[in-house]
């Protein structure tokens, strides 16, 4: 039987290097002959994703609850594909996931539990790596400020919500690690690989689900709020 592959999520503030590190990791796994797929959320190629892209570029305005639900729907569009790939032995790397959805929307003042609710039942990652960086350092990186949320005050508030998510996920038994993203690209990549390497051959349980009570024989990530 094909061994189930790991689901790896790369999270972090804007300009923390998420996309770069996710791509480097994808290329490294490919070089080792391992099947891997990289997903970027939001996926701006879908019909829903195009609406989100317009909003993020400040080309359109939407109610805070409406845009939150669109982000969640964008993840659900690919949920079954992610689970299928994992079961067939293809490692999945996600550049952002449901945790970003909660962090950015809760920062606006929406209820934390309300923000979490639409993503209950999504495939649960086996490893989440949060690339932590001081917002002022991220601001100094190229391209900062081109999208709606790339403001230092917003990023500081989002970082605080991520800290709450980290505590709750860790308390629930999920594997969540914080990586200092203020270092060189090579140093961060080496740190990322240490954590990924430790789980490549250690995922034996079926794909879990986010914030649902796990069924017998599964390992879901449960967060009680």
From TrEMBL:
<keyword id="KW-0545">Nucleotide biosynthesis</keyword>
<dbReference type="GO" id="GO:0006235">
    <property type="term" value="P:dTTP biosynthetic process"/>
</dbReference>
<dbReference type="GO" id="GO:0004798">
    <property type="term" value="F:dTMP kinase activity"/>
</dbReference>
<dbReference type="InterPro" id="IPR027417">
    <property type="entry name" value="P-loop_NTPase"/>
</dbReference>
<dbReference type="GO" id="GO:0005524">
    <property type="term" value="F:ATP binding"/>
</dbReference>
<keyword id="KW-0067">ATP-binding</keyword>
<keyword id="KW-0547">Nucleotide-binding</keyword>
<keyword id="KW-0418">Kinase</keyword>
<dbReference type="InterPro" id="IPR039430">
    <property type="entry name" value="Thymidylate_kin-like_dom"/>
</dbReference>
<feature type="domain" description="Thymidylate kinase-like">
    <location>
        <begin position="10"/>
        <end position="191"/>
    </location>
</feature>
<dbReference type="GO" id="GO:0004550">
    <property type="term" value="F:nucleoside diphosphate kinase activity"/>
</dbReference>
<dbReference type="Pfam" id="PF02223">
    <property type="entry name" value="Thymidylate_kin"/>
</dbReference>
<dbReference type="InterPro" id="IPR018094">
    <property type="entry name" value="Thymidylate_kinase"/>
</dbReference>
<protein>
    <recommendedName>
        <fullName>Thymidylate kinase</fullName>
        <ecNumber>2.7.4.9</ecNumber>
    </recommendedName>
</protein>
<dbReference type="GO" id="GO:0005829">
    <property type="term" value="C:cytosol"/>
</dbReference>
<dbReference type="GO" id="GO:0006233">
    <property type="term" value="P:dTDP biosynthetic process"/>
</dbReference>
<dbReference type="GO" id="GO:0005634">
    <property type="term" value="C:nucleus"/>
</dbReference>
<comment type="pathway">
    <text>Pyrimidine metabolism; dTTP biosynthesis.</text>
</comment>
<comment type="similarity">
    <text>Belongs to the thymidylate kinase family.</text>
</comment>
<dbReference type="GO" id="GO:0006227">
    <property type="term" value="P:dUDP biosynthetic process"/>
</dbReference>
<keyword id="KW-0808">Transferase</keyword>
């Amino acid at each position: 039987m094909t061994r189930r592959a790991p689901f790896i999520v790369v999270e972090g503030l804007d300009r923390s290097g998420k996309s770069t590190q996710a791509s480097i990791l994808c290329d490294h796994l490919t070089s080792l002959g391992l099947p891997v797929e990289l997903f970027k959320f939001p996926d701006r190629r879908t019909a829903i994703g195009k609406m989100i892209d317009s909003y993020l570029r400040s080309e359109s305005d939407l109610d805070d609850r409406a845009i939150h639900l669109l982000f969640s729907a964008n993840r659900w569009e690919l949920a079954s594909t992610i689970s299928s790939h994992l079961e067939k032995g293809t490692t999945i790397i996600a550049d952002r996931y449901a945790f970003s959805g909660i962090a950015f929307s809760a920062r606006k003042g929406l209820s934390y539990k309300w923000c979490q609710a639409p993503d209950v039942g999504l495939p649960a990652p086996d490893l989440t790596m949060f690339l932590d960086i001081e917002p002022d350092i991220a601001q100094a990186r190229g391209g900062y400020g081109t999208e709606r949320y790339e403001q230092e005050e917003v990023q500081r508030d989002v970082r605080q919500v991520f800290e709450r998510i980290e505590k709750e996920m860790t308390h629930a038994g999920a594997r969540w690690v914080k990586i200092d993203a203020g270092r060189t690209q090579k140093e961060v990549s080496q740190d990322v690989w240490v954590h990924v390497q430790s789980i490549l051959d250690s995922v034996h349980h079926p794909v879990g689900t986010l914030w649902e009570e796990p069924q017998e024989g599964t390992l879901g990530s449960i967060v009680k709020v």
